[in-house]
Design a protein that fits this description.
Layout lengths: L8 E7 L7 H16 L7 E3 L14 H4 L3 H19 L6 E11 L2 E11 L7 E7 L23 E3 L4 E6 L6 H9 L4 E6 L17 H17 L2 E6 L1 E4 L2 E4 L3 E3 L5 E4 L6 E7 L2 H9 L2 H21 L12 H9 L12 H13 L24 H18 L4 E5 L4 H14 L4 E5 L7 H14 L2 E4 L3 H8 L7 H23 L1 E3 L5 H6 L20 H11 L3 H5 L12 H5 L3 H12 L4 H6 L4 H12 L29
Parallel strand pairs: 1-2, 2-3, 7-8, 8-9, 15-16, 15-18, 16-17
Antiparallel strand pairs: 1-14, 3-4, 4-5, 6-7, 9-12, 10-11, 12-13
Helix pairs in contact: 1-3, 4-5, 10-11, 10-16, 11-16, 13-14, 19-21
Length: 641
């Protein structure tokens, strides 16, 4: 211990949105935030920042460019803090900082967190500990182990106020991590995270934000309550390549009680003053850690036998004659030491005879529990999620205006409504692009949306452009003609985007994208799409919440490329049924499992056939790989790097 423990202890959790890849800019801002924290009253002893606060998380192949040594980080952070204090006219006070960064260590790259003391009066910064992330997610939307190496240690360490441990994101998903930290004497476990938001369905758990926020809170509470420690969770906010970090940083006491949370989505400080003696009280009430320490030799022996594959045996197993005698002695109503009184036997038999001959059976089918995540959405949360995404993605690309093709359908109406909420009506241009055979109803409904939103509009007849090309292809069938219309519409939108300095927004929903029910390099071309991960039924639900004109929401969906065409007529299945099946298939449920959940063989075949035959439409063009630096294969940079 470096000195007597400080009781109470003040901690500031800084929920932060770094700019992707801008380590110098992020470092300067972190220095200013540390100066802001040092000016708080009461002044915190510790400021906790998220995972990869120095660079942003999804940098992929850019890791080597943003990685620094822990020593360089310590000195640079100390300098940034002193500069910020001097600029603001503030005194410089010693401050402990927990910060996540990509680390260069012994010629390897790691996703790490450091504990550094900066602002000391009598010397340079002190690097007290570096933790290298042990558990690297390489599944789903994560690919960490491709870019960094695993750490192998989880240890507690001394600080000026007591003993601490660091974990990085997925480390906390493995209960053994918190156990090791607590066994090593940690009083406070700092968990730095870059957890993207997932799960927009309604919940009743009282935790604000998406489902992943509630899941994280359960994890942090379990670490704290099981081991009688404080646990501090700090998460990124902001958007990276369509993945939005939810925030909700929080501190949990040693009894598993959440002391407070930062808001959803927004950058913020949240400060806590805690009493470390709460740890003593919590462990006295629930001495689980003490129990574990006593049992630890047996636990470790069990771990050894499990990892070595030593089979478990029962004490009376074996060929010895005595084994059968032991089993026989265990039968009946005696223990081998003293008999059960006769009156107790009679009472037990009376109770048994009083039970009915047939017990009621309550049956639960597969539809009553389990299954894929629900398709129902929390519309208000989803609106906040998507409007924040639009604001951040537009700003990152340097655009303040958006252009949306308004077709008269619900998808484009929802996209336009989200854009208005994100950017303001004066910064959204709605464009109607009719062809001479287009339904007049579609044109009217598009105008309804434009009027309801109060946005600037343009109407451009694409007939001359389409007919000019098709004059050279008189034998083109309806499908080819429809594709030409769709591509001409996208030419118009991108040209208008140059005129208005406005980014085109995509309007394709998840169901259409999974079915390949769109024109390649047309509907899917806009660089930002707020509804591309919403199934059609979810778009309808969001449309009702956003106040889209009811006629637009309730009418039969149509691409309006061929007279009389409807989406569901083309697909051969209704959107509600298709969405349920797609949701199941994408979450690992086989056709057989979906059939058992009430879906017919014909509709399963329709969905599977369309899904499996259109993967090429959802990927970049296939390029022959002839080098060791193929773009998108070895040379990897995220879209917003």
């Amino acid at each position: 211990m470096l000195g007597d423990p400080i009781r109470p202890l003040t901690i500031a959790l800084c929920q932060f949105a770094p700019r992707k890849g801008d380590t110098a800019g992020n470092l300067a801002r972190i220095g200013r935030l540390c100066a802001q924290a040092a000016a708080l009253e009461p002044r915190p002893q510790v400021v906790h920042f998220p995972e990869t606060a120095l660079s942003g998380y999804f940098v992929e192949g850019g890791v080597r460019e943003v990685a620094v040594t822990a020593g360089v980080l310590a000195y640079d952070l100390d300098e940034a803090y002193r500069t910020a204090c001097m600029t603001a006219g503030l005194d410089t006070f010693p401050l402990d900082v927990v910060i996540g960064f990509y680390e260069r260590w012994r010629d390897t790259l790691h996703n790490s967190a450091a504990y550094i003391t900066i602002g000391l009066d009598d010397g340079p910064p002190v690097l007290r500990h570096v933790h290298r992330k042990n558990f690297l997610p390489t599944y789903g939307l994560f690919d960490e182990e491709r870019f960094v190496e695993r750490g192998t240690d989880i240890r507690a360490f001394e600080t000026p106020w007591g003993r601490a441990a660091l974990l990085v994101c997925e480390d906390a998903w493995h209960s053994v991590s918190g156990t090791l930290a607590a066994l090593d004497g940690a009083q406070l476990v700092f968990v730095s995270s870059a957890a993207p938001a997932r799960g927009s369905w309604p919940r009743e758990d009282g935790v604000p934000g998406p489902y992943s926020a509630a899941r994280w809170e359960r994890l942090i509470r379990d670490i704290a309550e099981e081991h009688g420690v404080y646990a501090s969770f700090v998460n990124l906010v902001g958007s990276e390549g369509g993945k939005r970090f939810f925030g909700t940083s929080h501190l949990v006491g040693p009894g598993g009680d959440v002391r407070g949370r930062a808001p959803v989505w927004e950058e913020s400080f949240v400060s806590f003053t805690i009493d470390l003696d709460d740890i003593v009280r919590a462990r006295a009430d629930s001495p689980l850690l003490s129990d574990l320490r006593v049992a630890l030799p047996h636990v470790l022996d069990n771990v050894r036998r499990v990892t070595e594959g030593v089979p478990a045996t029962l004490a009376y197993d074996g060929p010895e004659p005595e084994a059968a005698d032991l089993l026989r002695q265990a039968r009946g109503f005696t223990t081998g030491e003293f008999p059960v009184p006769t009156e107790a036997l009679q009472k037990a038999n009376t109770i048994i005879r009083a039970l009915p001959e047939q017990l009621p059976v309550i049956r639960h089918g597969m539809r009553d529990h389990g299954g894929p995540p629900p398709l129902t959405i929390d519309a208000e949360l989803t609106e906040e999620w998507l409007t924040g995404f639009l604001r951040e993605e537009m700003a990152r690309r340097g655009f303040g205006k958006a252009v949306v093709g308004i077709s008269g359908g619900v998808d484009s109406a929802v996209t336009a409504a989200l854009a208005v909420r994100a950017l303001g009506a004066s910064n959204v241009i709605g464009v109607r692009l009719p062809y001479r055979t287009s339904s007049s109803e579609s044109l009217d409904h598009a105008q309804l949306v434009i009027d309801a939103l109060g946005i600037e509009s343009r109407t451009l007849d694409i007939s001359p452009a389409v007919d000019g090309y098709l004059a050279n292809e008189p034998d083109a069938d309806g499908g080819r003609r429809g594709n030409v219309m769709a591509r001409v519409r996208m030419i118009a939108l991108f040209d208008l985007s140059a005129r208005y300095r406005a980014l085109p927004l995509g309007t394709g929903n998840k169901t259409e994208r999974l079915f390949g029910y769109f024109t390649w390099h047309a509907d899917d071309s806009p660089p930002v799409n707020p509804i591309g991960d919403l199934y059609k039924t979810q778009v309808w639900a969001l449309a009702r919440h956003l106040g889209v004109p009811s006629i637009v929401v309730t009418k039969a969906p149509t691409a309006d490329l061929i007279v009389g065409q409807t989406d569901e007529g083309d697909l051969g299945i209704s959107y509600p049924r298709a969405d349920e099946i797609l949701n199941g298939l994408l979450h690992g449920y086989s056709d057989e499992a979906m059939h058992a959940r009430g879906f017919g063989a014909e509709e399963l075949a329709i969905v599977s056939r369309r899904l499996n035959s259109t993967h090429w439409k959802r990927r970049p063009p296939a390029t022959a790989l002839v080098s060791q630096s193929g773009i998108g294969e070895s040379y990897l940079r995220p879209v917003d790097y």
